[in-house]
Q: What sequence folds into this?
């Protein structure tokens, strides 16, 4: 599974994101309190640029007794407002069937050799770098179902 | 960064769809205060600056999105969504290679309480559409905005612009003070028919009473979803008051109400008419016949049935494939993507009719 | 066979006098009060009483409660072999603004139902009439009758002054939920607010046909505003509102929720799931398409198996027959559920 260097750690502070084009896909990289997550930038609903949406929390509870949790971990599509869990890519309303493609992310020392390559920026050796795993063949699994 | 759509020829299940011409029948333009002031006469500009645009108060629900807009629809220069021609061209017309777009200003003109200012406001918005938008892009057509609660004043504005080549229709919103079959609105229909212009009835507005037949609900989601019931009330009134027997070429375009509700509504109107037709002497045939003949419906917000095969069942039940017209509702948050909204299971001929041909015929636009 | 919607209207205001405190009888005689001013079932309108039975229904001098009981026995219960018939009464106490009078009128109607209807035929079941415009008074009336055998539900007119999901109405629904009885929302009412979201229509036709939209608004309010999250055991039957609109409403409510869920964050499942769990529909009016296959599609779309309950809607004019039976197009397996199993479960009948 090819790994792509997409950013230096310093580039995406906690609570921030970076949207990059990598291996023909547009992907959003999110930093949640030091953990990195990557989501495809295409909403499975109508194709909206998902990763430019609002990052918010999850509101639930009972009438008159609301609970606000997981602040900074919920991504709302900039078009129809569908809520996605940044950690998993699952939609809140239909997690089993409606999900945005999530990619494995790792952080390592900067690339030296091998299959690693950086498409969107210059990488210095020995910087802490964020890598995204992009499976070789195009995978359409995120595009199933509108719920 | 600018993001383009990665799979423009797939529907929302990933299946491939045929590319067709596209006419978008619901593209919102907004007028910013400086543009409004520029198009107002000195008297009304002074009135506007001293008293503002007074409309119904106490009737709005806090919305979920600023300007009810897509988050990515705010032009970078600080304009509000829908107020910047170049940005609308870039993000909508060019992005989707549209053939035409019908401008639908949601300026609250018909809700202005002072009808005289309502007329001045309508004139300003209409001149703004013609001069600042249509004159710069041949793909655009405009809607005649009117102070619809005053029939004669509205007719005055229709007569001013009825022959203007940019004007495609007369425009009002669904939450009127009285049902649209009422005589107070007849001068609007009379004038529109003189120029063979359809009457567009668009989602929205606050008309003086609650949005339900049982008072006001509590949340924006109810106001937003509840417009479908307002549309049904309007269709019921329009048909049962016999408008189509009085005004020969009267046509209505229902925009942004969805359309699945039209099916059970037609059944109920017909079954009830069979028993109560005595009360409606102007109605000569089953209400559904008038509806299928004289009403057009925009597709947005696109219906999302529980199972995909139900979409085609619904189209068959509706039996108005020659009346459905694609609309995106740009720049609003409930935008429908022209490439993905209509499921791939819809037959190519029907898709062409919905995406462009029906609108081309109605608005006389060559494609 | 269980009939969920037969109407037992009060023939004359005087029939209630024996059940009213004397001061209200005198007040009624001395004032111009002639009963609620609801005009949801005007007596002269064709739909109110089936044309084939108008003479018998209103008949000269025979128009009293006992005659009405006999008429229902002869024209509905016996010919259709109905074993349980749920009576719904459109005496609109919520339209009487004077709440003390409204409360006494409700008690009078309910006592009249107990003595004149439930006592007359053990196939009858009755609905508790309440001054629902004032939840405090309505709660008292529910508590008065909730354990009385024969009363199987609390009746609410679909037209109300605020939608039933709003929290101002919580006292009412808390009492209904506590009683273990379902609520029945039926066609009509006269709350003093327009019956549409666009003002007052001009004809009875529009009010009659348009009642379907008020039902839709009530379903939307009750689900979105969290009524069933506050009272999970609450069950509702929608009477005489039609059901063919259910699929389109479910789709729209699901769709809105996908994007605006955080606007009503207590709604935890698909709105259509709430609807299927908490709502039932009476069969008449069918509001049917010309093509029965399309009706079967609608049943499939709403997954109607457990949602529909048989009704004749007597004496209202819905079909050719005075008391219409099961429609021909209904599949055999659904027939048994609609006529028997669904209402038996809903009303916990033996």
A:
């Amino acid at each position: 599974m090819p790994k792509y260097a997409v950013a230096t750690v310093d580039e995406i502070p906690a609570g921030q994101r970076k949207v990059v084009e990598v291996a023909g896909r547009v992907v959003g990289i999110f930093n949640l309190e030091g953990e990195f997550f990557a989501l495809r930038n295409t909403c499975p609903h109508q194709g909206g640029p998902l990763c430019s949406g609002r990052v918010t929390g999850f509101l639930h509870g009972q009438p008159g007794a609301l609970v606000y949790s997981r602040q900074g971990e919920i991504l709302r599509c900039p078009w129809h407002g569908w809520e996605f869990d940044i950690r998993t890519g699952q939609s809140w309303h239909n997690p089993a069937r409606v999900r945005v493609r999530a990619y494995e992310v790792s952080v390592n020392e900067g690339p030296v050799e091998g299959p690693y390559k950086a498409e969107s920026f210059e990488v210095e050796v020995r910087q802490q770098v964020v890598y995204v795993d992009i499976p070789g063949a195009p995978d359409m699994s995120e595009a199933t179902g509108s719920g | 960064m600018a993001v383009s759509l990665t799979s423009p020829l797939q529907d929302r299940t990933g299946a491939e769809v045929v590319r067709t011409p596209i006419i978008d029948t619901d593209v919102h333009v907004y007028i910013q205060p400086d543009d409004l002031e520029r198009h107002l006469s000195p008297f009304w500009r002074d009135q506007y600056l001293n008293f503002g645009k007074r409309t119904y108060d106490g009737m709005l629900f806090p919305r979920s999105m600023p300007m009810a807009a897509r988050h990515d629809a705010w032009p970078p220069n600080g304009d509000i969504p829908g107020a910047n021609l170049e940005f609308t061209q870039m993000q909508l017309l060019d992005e989707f290679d549209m053939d035409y777009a019908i401008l639908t200003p949601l300026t609250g003109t018909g809700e202005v309480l002072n009808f005289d200012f309502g007329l001045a406001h309508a004139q300003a918005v209409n001149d703004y559409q013609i001069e600042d938008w249509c004159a710069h892009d041949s793909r655009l057509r405009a809607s005649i905005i009117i102070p619809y609660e005053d029939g004669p004043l509205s007719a005055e504005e229709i007569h001013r612009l009825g022959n203007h080549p940019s004007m495609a229709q007369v425009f009002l919103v669904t939450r009127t003070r009285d049902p649209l079959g009422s005589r107070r609105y007849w001068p609007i229909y009379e004038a529109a028919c003189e120029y063979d212009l359809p009457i567009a009835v668009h989602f929205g507005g606050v008309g003086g009473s609650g949005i339900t037949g049982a008072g006001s609900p509590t949340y924006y989601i109810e106001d937003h979803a509840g417009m479908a019931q307002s549309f049904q009330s309007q269709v019921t009134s329009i048909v049962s008051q016999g408008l189509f027997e009085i005004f020969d070429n009267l046509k209505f375009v229902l925009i942004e109400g969805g359309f699945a509700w039209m099916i059970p509504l037609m059944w109920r109107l017909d079954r009830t008419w069979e028993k109560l037709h005595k009360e409606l002497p102007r109605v000569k045939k089953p209400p559904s016949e008038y509806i299928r003949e004289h009403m057009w419906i925009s597709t947005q917000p696109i219906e999302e049935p529980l199972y995909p095969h139900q979409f085609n069942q619904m189209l068959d039940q509706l039996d108005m494939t020659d009346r459905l017209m694609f609309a995106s509702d740009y720049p609003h948050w409930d935008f429908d993507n022209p490439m993905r909204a209509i499921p791939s299971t819809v037959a190519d001929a029907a898709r062409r009719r919905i995406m462009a041909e029906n609108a081309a015929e109605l608005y006389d636009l060559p494609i | 066979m269980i009939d969920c919607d037969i109407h037992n209207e009060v023939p004359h205001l005087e029939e209630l006098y024996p059940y009213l405190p004397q001061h209200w009888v005198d007040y009624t005689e001395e004032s111009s009060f002639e009963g609620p001013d609801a005009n949801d079932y005007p007596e002269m309108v064709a739909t109110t009483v089936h044309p084939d039975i108008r003479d018998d229904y209103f008949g000269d001098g025979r128009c009293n409660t006992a005659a009405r009981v006999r008429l229902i026995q002869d024209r509905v219960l016996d010919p259709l072999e109905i074993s349980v018939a749920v009576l719904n009464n459109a005496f609109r106490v919520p339209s009487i603004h004077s709440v003390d009078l409204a409360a006494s009128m409700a008690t009078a109607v309910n006592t009249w139902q107990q003595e004149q209807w439930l006592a007359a035929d053990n196939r009858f079941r009755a609905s508790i009439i309440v001054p629902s415009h004032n939840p405090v008074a309505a709660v008292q009336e529910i508590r008065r009758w909730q354990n009385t055998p024969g009363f199987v539900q609390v009746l609410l007119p679909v037209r109300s002054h605020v939608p039933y999901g709003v929290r101002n109405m919580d006292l009412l629904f808390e009492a209904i939920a506590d009683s273990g009885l379902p609520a029945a929302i039926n066609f009509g009412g006269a709350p003093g607010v327009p019956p549409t979201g666009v003002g007052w229509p001009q004809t009875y036709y529009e009010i009659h046909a348009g009642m379907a939209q008020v039902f839709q608004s009530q379903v939307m309010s009750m689900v979105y505003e969290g009524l069933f999250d506050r009272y999970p055991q609450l069950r509702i039957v929608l009477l005489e509102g039609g059901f063919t609109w259910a699929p389109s409403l479910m789709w729209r409510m699901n769709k809105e929720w996908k994007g605006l869920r955080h606007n009503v964050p207590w709604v935890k499942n698909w709105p259509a799931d709430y609807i299927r769990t908490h709502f039932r529909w009476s069969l008449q009016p069918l509001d049917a398409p010309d093509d029965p296959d399309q009706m079967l599609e609608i049943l499939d779309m709403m997954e109607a198996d457990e949602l529909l309950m048989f009704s004749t809607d007597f004496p209202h004019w819905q079909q050719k027959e005075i008391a219409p039976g099961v429609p021909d197009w209904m599949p055999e397996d659904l027939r048994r559920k609609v006529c028997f199993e669904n209402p038996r479960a809903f009303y916990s009948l033996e």
User: Anything to note?
Assistant: The two ends of chain A are 30 Å apart (CA to CA). Residues 112-116, 137-147 of chain A have pLDDT under 50 and may be disordered. The longest strand of chain A covers residues 65-76. Residues 24 and 73 of chain A are 26 Å apart (CA to CA).
